């Protein structure tokens, strides 16, 4: 084979040879470089928590957080919260799942609109809580549906005269309230500018107020939270994977009667008729234009003239003054 000196090869052919060599070298090196980049990058999972919280909500969030922990490509999680609350049991399950996930990767909860009551409970174990300036946050409270009447002999001790008593519902509501309150103090106590009694009043706060009083950590949107968790996870470039429920909705849980009373019902739902619901006082008022009796911890208000609780009270709620 004859080898021609490079200076004897026409310039156009020289350029063609150089281009060919560059293509060959690029083809050999590119897979290694691409693999290096893929190893360094990862995914931020954005998991939506919206609407009334029920068992379907908690199952979805638990499944998605479990997948995030087991998927090597997911390096961080953002909870995109838009909920005024719901079932205490379901909220507690999500609270635990968030806590477990935050032990393995950065997790930030973000609220652009509302994150109150059970939804706020869910966020407590995230690393940080981001809120939009006008978002509604807080309402460390519990609302329970009125007990279903068991006939004229309700409250009698005979075994065939009903097994449920209003005191049972009240005790359950107050127990859940205490657990909720303890969780807030445990997870936010170092940041809170409010004492325990003030927290128990179950007020909601704007995003600006929430950052000032320690209910939240930063003013920011979901997008801000995404970039922050990516930075904490050490991701220079990353994918965003959004996970939302399949759209299954819950039947109505609230009904307003023609005389203005509010009835909480579990009819045609998977909830027990006595299952307490976490809702905000403001959300209740917005929905029905009515107020309901409130109490903080074991203290109850709205008593009748005889010093006893009104017998026609339609719901118990741990909260502050209605708007």
UniProtKB/TrEMBL annotation:
Query: Which InterPro entries does this UniProt record tie to the protein?
Result: ClpP/crotonase-like_dom_sf, Peptidase_S49, S49_SppA_C
Q: Which domain of life is it from?
A: Archaea
Q: What is its EC number?
A: 3.4.21.-
Please name the GO terms of the biological process aspect recorded for this protein, alphabetically: proteolysis
Signal sequence interval, chain numbering: none
Keyword tRNA processing belongs to the record? no
SUPFAM superfamilies named among the record's database cross-references: ClpP/crotonase
GO terms of molecular function: serine-type peptidase activity
Q: Peptidase S49 domain: which residues?
A: 101-143, 173-235
The keyword Protease is assigned to this record = yes
**Key words of the record:** Hydrolase, Protease, Serine protease
Q: Which CDD domains match?
A: S49_Sppa_N_C
Q: Where is this region: Disordered?
A: 142-168, 295-323
* Similarity comment: Belongs to the peptidase S49 family.
Name the PANTHER family for this protein: PEPTIDASE S49, PROTEASE SOHB-RELATED
In its UniProt entry, what is this protein called? S49 family peptidase
* Species in which this protein is naturally found: Halosolutus amylolyticus
The taxonomic lineage of its organism, from the top, reads: Archaea, Methanobacteriati, Methanobacteriota, Stenosarchaea group, Halobacteria
């Amino acid at each position: 084979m004859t080898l021609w000196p490079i200076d004897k090869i026409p310039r156009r052919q020289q350029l063609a040879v150089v281009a060919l060599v560059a293509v060959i070298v690029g083809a050999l090196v590119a897979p290694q470089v691409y693999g290096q980049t893929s190893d360094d990058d990862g995914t931020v999972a954005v998991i939506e928590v919206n609407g009334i919280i029920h068992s379907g909500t908690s199952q979805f969030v638990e499944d998605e957080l479990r997948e995030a922990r087991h998927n090597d490509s997911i390096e961080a999680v953002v909870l995109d919260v838009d909920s005024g609350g719901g079932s205490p049991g379901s909220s507690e399950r999500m609270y635990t799942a968030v806590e477990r996930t935050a032990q393995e990767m950065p997790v930030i909860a973000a609220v652009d609109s509302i994150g109150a009551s059970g939804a706020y409970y869910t966020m407590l174990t995230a690393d940080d809580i981001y809120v939009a300036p006008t978002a509604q946050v807080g309402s460390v409270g519990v609302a329970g549906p009125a007990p279903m009447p068991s006939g004229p002999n309700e409250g009698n001790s005979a075994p065939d005269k009903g097994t449920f008593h209003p005191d049972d519902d009240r005790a359950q509501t107050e127990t859940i309230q205490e657990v909720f309150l303890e969780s807030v103090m445990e997870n936010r106590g170092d940041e809170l500018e409010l004492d325990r009694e003030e927290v128990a009043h179950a007020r909601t706060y704007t995003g600006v107020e929430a950052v000032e009083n320690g209910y939240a950590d930063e003013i920011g949107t979901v997008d801000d939270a995404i970039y922050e968790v990516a930075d904490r996870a050490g991701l220079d470039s990353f994918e965003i994977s959004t996970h939302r429920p399949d759209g299954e909705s819950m039947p109505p849980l609230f009904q307003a009667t023609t005389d203005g009373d509010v009835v909480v019902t579990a009819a045609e739902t998977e909830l027990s008729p006595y299952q307490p619901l976490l809702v905000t006082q403001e959300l209740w008022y917005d929905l029905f234009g009515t107020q309901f009796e409130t109490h903080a911890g074991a203290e109850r208000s709205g008593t009748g003239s005889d010093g006893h609780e009104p017998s026609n009270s339609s719901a118990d709620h741990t909260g502050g003054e209605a708007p």
